[in-house]
Amino acid sequence: MHTNRRNFLKLSATAAVATAFGGLGLGCTPKAEAVDRAAAMDPKWSKQTTSICCYCAVGCGLVVNTSLKTKRAVNVEGDPDHPINEGALCAKGASIWQLAENDRRPDSVLYRAPYANKFKKVSLAWALEKIAHNVKKARDENFTHLNSRGQAVNRCDTIASLGSAALDNEECWAYSTMLRSLGLVYVEHQARI
Amino acid sequence: MTNHWIDLKNSDCILIMGSNAAENHPISFKWVTKAQEKGATVIHVDPRFTRTSAKADMYAPIRSGADIAVLGGMIKYILDNDLIFKEYVLEYTNASFIVGDKYAFDNGIFSGYNRETRSYDLSQWAFAMDENGNPKKDPTLQDPRCVYQMLRKHYERYTLDNVEAISGMTRADIVKFYETYAATGKKDKAGTIMYAMGWTQHTVGVQNIRAMAIIQLLLGNIGIPGGGVNALRGEANVQGSTDHGLLYHILPGYLATPLAAHQSLAEYNKAFTPVSNDPMSANWWQNFPKYSASLLKSMWMDDDPAVSFNYLPKLDTAAASVYSWLNLFDKMDKGQFKGLFAWGMNPACSGANTHKTRQALTRLDWLVNVNIFPNETGSFWEGPGMDPSKIKTEVFFLPCSVSIEKEGSVSNSGRWMQWRYQGPDAPHGFKPDGDLMYELMHEIQALYKKEGGVYPEPILRFNLEGWATNGIFDPHKTAKLINGHFTRDVEIGGTVYKKGTQVPSFAMLQADGSTCSGNWLYCNSYTEQGNMAARRSLAQTPEQEKLGLFPNYTWCWPVNRRILYNRASVDPTGKPWNPELPLIQWDAITKKWVGDVPDGGWAPGERHPFIMTRFGFGQLYGPGRADGPLPEYYEPLECPVNSHPFSTTLHNPTAISYADEDKAVCDPRYPFVGTTYRVTEHWQTGLMTRNQEWLVEMEPQMFVEMSEELAALRGITNGEKVIVESVRGSVWAKAMVTKRFKPFDVQGTVIHQVGLPWHYGWTWPKDGGDSANILTPSVGDPNTGIPETKAFMVNVRKA
Amino acid sequence: MSKTFFIDLTKCTACRGCQVACKQWKKLPAEKTVNWGSRQNPKDLSGVTLKLVRFSEVETNGKLQWLFYPEQCRHCVEPPCIDAMTVPGSIVHDQETGAVIYTSLTAKEPNKESFAANCPYDIPRINKETGMVVKCDMCNDRVKMGMLPACVLTCPTGAMNFGEREDMLELAEKNLEAAQKRYPDAELVDEYTVRVIYLVQTSPTSYHEYLEADASSIQRGPLSRKQFLAKLASPLKRMNS
Q1: Distance CA B245, CA B159 (A)
Q2: CATH of domain A29-99
Q3: Which pLDDT does position B19 carry in this prediction?
Q4: Residues of chain B contacting C30 with CB distance shorter than 8 Å
Q5: Do B694 and C59 touch (CB under 8 A)?
């Protein structure tokens, strides 16, 4: 995570009484020591966008606050104006901030050469060029113009694709038609299993 | 879903069977709870007492895989006690149709069975036709060959004794369940079903759903608020990904993938354009040629659809046993594939029979894995039992944006297409999947342009720029292309649509290439009025508000119709069956329907309501399925019994399986029924959620739930590490000994069942365990190919 | 303005959205846990877990109930933990909302255990890294901005409710009446002495030892506990069984 654990703790230790609290209670005025979370929701500091939860297919609405400075998410919660969830989210949905702000996301495209025992970092451009060559080779060397009955089938039987119900509609459609243009017929995804 | 999430609140009886909605679709319980508050009864039928059962008004345990026995028994109960919604059944279902002479059923086998190919000749099950080419009917329902009488005969074996003996459900539960649910067969009552993979992941998956659909039709529960047949669906966009044809057998819009037999667009259209001679039948698929031509145009804008049809790859057969998932991996294991894209998927954990799947990956020359986190698929070569120095596979792992870091739409189970906006930027310059697709395809096109290649036309002429603006993937432009536009000036009914105008709805699509539309079902989603999926108005008429239709919030396919088959919610004169909850009503003055967008604007009684079926009727008898026109009871391919009461045909005779893979049937080494499932805190293979510490904190490790009785039998204490093993492999799991599993009495024998989540994998967390699919068999439903991961046989022992 | 939570446990599905929403808003770290034969995890509240859904299986006469209890600070009307305060300002009782808030000054308290000892619900915990005594703060920052507490916003079924005290008491009575049709033993717990009122479907102890303040449960902080229970013993305490 971008904010380390210690910072979290400092934040949580103090923010609870930061702005929300000016001279209240038993005659004490706790000192505001850190950034406070509620103020971070202010349009001065963050932009607010709506999204839809990426997990099950109920389609719950989200409100995402993104820091204008870091361009990273600062808070994700249920969209109270969404008629299906009315602000509600389950454990997974409530955790989406951590999906994005997560140190376990790798920092590069990775490549594993044949027989190698580890990944190495490569550029996206290098990877895409190599993948394109692989696709062309597998397709061109084994293209099936005619099936065993002599019928024109114009397909590529040596590349398969799996995925994905996690893609957006526009991506699904793009991917579906792109694969067909390459001649793929072994096209499957989560709906099959 | 025929209906949608909010509509659950309109139900009088919610049956949750084959799903665990409170845990896997938690927010659905907002609307289930609302229904309960208004007096609805919630019934949960499941092998295990779950968070759903905890909230249900009635919970009835059932042995995994025994659903058709129980549902078949309900069909018999409804018919025997004459609890059907008579007018609906007579007017709107095929109950009165006469079944042709060739149909027969004997001892678990339907007519037309070929033992060699383990498949049926479906033509044997056709209806008897009259001189006009329409099905013969007997409106008195007395003809012994009419569907109604056929149903009675078929299910006469499904007695309470038989159902009780095989399902493990108690007699009292069965009767109470039947009574409660069948009470929705009244005009002013609605019953609904919430099902998920608990029904589909069986070798009789499709017939499980068929059995419930029959019940819903008999009770008049389809097309009405609070009713329907509702698949809950497990992924944010599994509805959309299916709509857009990311499956071998369909192209976008559920257009069948062409077969080798279709050597021209005309032949293809002819094969998939049904003909009905009944003027009352809308027979919506008669529009197939408009949709196929518009799709081809969207893919190859500069070609005549008759030409670009040749660019589409053709299958040798539509059979699931050849191209679907299980067979894909069987062929991969045998070395057929050079390359694999695993794009937003983790098959090394999600597919049945994990060891076989992981082994198959070693046969590839290359693998492209696009995902958020490293996972068991992209890293298979360093997984348990793998020696990287012996594995040739080249692997490309491409990280991508997460959903809140990109813009585009997803379609939920209720078919709502909902637009998402980009919030944060992705770290390290990562891109959305769409950008990666565009850039890869651009690279491939450039390579063919530069070097030439085999059959390059489909690639070179592909409308790639239709997705992009200034060389960058553009979700808006793509969404507009999916909706479609006029490719030249076209006059329809006196209105001229200029070239480039967005097509207002699929009724305007043309078969001559004058329109393009990437997916006819989404035509109307991005029109000249703008992006309908981005709408956020909560405005409703009082009637709509009562139902919670929200017609101005986002957009729903088809043409913003919120409840499918809604013409079945009114009687043939247009009056709602339930005047308290009108879904659509005919306004005699304006001559228009008000309420939901109707299933076609025809006046009441002008069309049969089931417009997507050839004859316009709900199909009690369904002659199009691979394994029979009526659901029949069979045991899972791995089971604890060697006989059942309904026939001597133990298993589905058409199920997909591999003869060289052993199956445990009454095998003393694997005495317990196993099943897999999910928990609220993780998702699918856990790839996304296992990498989030808040979620791992709550569900850190693989576990196996078992009854106190089974734990005592095996000397297992709660929380200890145990081994669960099947014919295919074994996994460790923490024992969760619980009162929520109880042994079943099956044909007088005590049968234990255990259950495991399938969220874990060896990559992360390190002490989390591995996939439950190591245990599951590669056997599948003959219609869909879906594997039977909900019922298989295991042993459990102390570690 | 005086706020109160009403938590209807007959409607809780233990989706644990609240448990995560709490951590998400406050950006609290996760604990390292293992599966210990229960869905409940972490096992207990802690210095970084201020809201915890507890699970318990109860079977009586062959009828199984799986009980879910999202546990949190009660924000007592007369908070007995204030008696444990020795550093002025380590506990703040917000007179506007009624929130009982532990501040960073709790780190300077000489006897931090006394906070929990004085709590009839065993809520306060010590954060080992900051040394602070911690617990739910009613999302007072959100509430002041007109937002719902994170746990309440995220609850799908209407189990978690938050609002003006009178409105919550009214809702509690209404839901109690509805709940008793299905659960004759349903009751409201300590509704006149706390700002987090639970509606239980069966005896509070079936859920957890400290769901209800109980004189017989523990004796760790006798003086303040006695004072607190004296208040509870007033005729206002209501049992609907």
Answers
A1: 41
A2: 3.30.200.210
A3: 98
A4: 693-694, 696-697
A5: no
Render pLDDT for B683-726 as a digit per residue (tens, 0 to 9).
999 999 999 999 999 999 999 999 999 999 999 999 999 999 99
Would you call C92 and A90 a contact, using CB atoms and an 8 Å cutoff?
A: no
**How many angstroms separate the CA atoms of B14 and B191, rounded?**
6
Q: From the candidates B251, B341, B382, B474, which should be mutated to test the interface with A, based on the most A CB atoms within 10 A?
A: B341
Q: What is the mean pLDDT of residues C12-21?
A: 98
Tell me which chain A residues have a C-beta less than 8 angstroms from the C-beta of B556: none
Radius of gyration of chain C (CA): 17
Does position B654 have pLDDT exceeding 80, yes or no?
Answer: yes
Q: Is the dihedral of CA A19, A23, A25, A29 positive or negative?
A: positive
Distance from the Cα of A90 to chain B's closest Cα (Å) equals 6
Q: Which of B482, B488, B490, B435 is nearest to B463 (CA)?
A: B482
Q: What is the pLDDT of residue C1?
A: 58
The number of residues in chain A equals 193
* Minimal C-alpha gap between B379 and chain A (Å): 9
| A121 touching chain B per CB within 8 A | no
Residues of A in contact with B403 (CB under 8 A): 51-52, 54, 96, 166
Is residue B106 packed enough to be buried (19+ CB in 10 Å), middle (13-18) or exposed (0-12)?
A: exposed
Q: Which of C12, C20, C50 to mutate to test the interface with A (most CBs of A within 10 A)?
A: C20
Residue A56's closest CA among A82, A92, A81? A92
- What CA–CA distance (Å, rounded) separates B621 from B143? 15
> Which residues of chain A form CATH 3.30.200.210?
29-99
pLDDT given at position A39? 82
Please provide residue B644's backbone torsions phi and psi, each rounded to the nearest 5 degrees: -140, 165
Size of interface A-C (CB pairs under 8 A): 138
pTM over 0.90: yes
Q: CB distance from B799 to chain C under 8 Å?
A: no
- Tokens standing for A7? 């910072």
Binding-face residues of A in 163-182 toward B, CB within 8 A: 163-178, 180-182
Note whether B398 and B368 are within 8 A (CB).
yes
Reading the block at residue B559, the tokens are 């043409």
Q: Which amino acid is at A32?
A: A
- Structure token digits, residue B75: 């069909």
Query: Does residue C228 carry a pLDDT above 80?
Result: no
- Residue B583 CA to residue B561 CA, distance in Å, equals 11
pLDDT at residue C231 above 80? no
* Cβ–Cβ contact B298 with A under 8 A: yes
What is the rounded CA–CA span in Å between residue C162 and residue C148? 7
